[in-house]
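queue> holo job accepted (flavin mononucleotide)
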Amino acid sequence: MSRTAPRLPWFGPGRFPLYLAPMARRTDIAFRQLCKEQGADVMVTEFVQSEALIRDNAKAWEMVDFTETQRPMGVQIFGATPASMARAAREVCDRVRPDFLDLNFGCPAHKVIEQNAGSGLLRCTPLLYDLVKAVKDAIPDVPLTAKMRLGWDQDSIVAVEVAGRLEQLGVEALAVHGRTKEQGYAGAADWAWIARVAAAVNIPVIGNGDLQDGAGALRRRDESGVSGVMIGRAALGNPWIFADVKAALEGRPSAVGAIGPRQRWEAMLRLAELTLEVHASRLGSRDVRWMLDRLLPLTQGLPGSRRIRDRLRYCLTLADLRRLGDEHLTELARDP
Ligand SMILES: Cc1cc2nc3c(=O)[nH]c(=O)nc-3n(C[C@H](O)[C@H](O)[C@H](O)COP(=O)(O)O)c2cc1C
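queue> job finished
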C-alpha cells in the first residue's frame, strides 16, 4: 500500500520508488551515477561513521559527497553515541544539504557491532531510541529515515516493535532488510516479516533483500504492501535492473532486454572513468587495479567471462581497460 510522507515526496499515491541500497566501498558517487542513469529513484550514501565526520576526517566527508543530479539523496551515518550522532547529523545537513538523513541499524560487521552500532543496536533498543531522539532534535528541518534488519537473531526479532517506536519518534520512512544480524547474508530474506512491519506502521516501509529482477520486485510489491523497494547486490553486476523493474511495475516489456557485451564494456569503462574522476586526486594515482572489485561484477554474462576476469587483473590504466574491451568485442564480432 502506498503511504505518504509529506517531506519525502517520492512516496505517495501512484508512486513506488526504487532505492539503490547503500553498500560500503561499492555505491560511491561514481557507481551511483550509473544507477541513476538507469532509473534508480532514490539513493543513499554508504554508511559513514559519526565520529569520523566530527573529527573532520577527509575520507569520511568524501563519502557523503553527491552530485545534484543524484538527488533525492540521503546520507547514512552510524554510531552508538547519541551526542556524536546528533552532532554529525547536524554538520552533514549544514554542509551537504541531503534530502534526508538515514540511520544505520543494520550493519552486521564485527567492528561495528562491538561498538553497539549498526545492528548491535537491535539488542540494545533503549540506546537506539535515545539515539533517534537526539538526532531528531538536532535536525528538525531535515527528514529522518532509518534502515534496519529484523533483529539480532531468530529468537529476538524486534522489527515490528522498533518500527512502531521509530514512527512515534518521528522517523519518516524505514527500510527493512529481511534478515537478522546472525544471518549475515545467508539464507533468504524473509519478506513475510517485511510485510508485518509494513502493516504495523503508517510511514512508508521500503522492502529490501534478494531482489533480482522486475518480476520478483512486482511480486514483492503486491504481496508485502511495501511502499518502495531497495536493490543492493543485484545492481552491482546489473545497474540496468532499475530500468527492468520500472518497466515491470508499469506493466511494460523490459526496457533493457538482454544486456550485450558492448553495453557491459561501456558500463565498465564508464564506471572506471567516473571512479578515477572521483578518487584519483586523493589517491595520487590513475592506477585502475584497486577498483577491480567494482568492475568484476559487470563481467557477469560476458562470453568468456572467466578469461576476461583474469586479463582484467593485468590492466593498470584506463587505456589498458579500453584496449582489452576493444580486443574482446573484435573477437566476438569475428567469432560470436
Ligand atoms: C558490500 C556491501 C556493503 C554494504 N554496506 C551497507 C551500508 O553501508 N549501509 C547499509 O545500510 N547497508 C549496507 N549493506 C546492506 C545492503 O544495503 C542491503 O541491505 C543488503 O545487501 C541486502 O539487499 P540485497 O539482497 O538487494 O543485496 C551492504 C551490503 C553489501 C553486500
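queue> The two ends are 46 Å apart (CA to CA).
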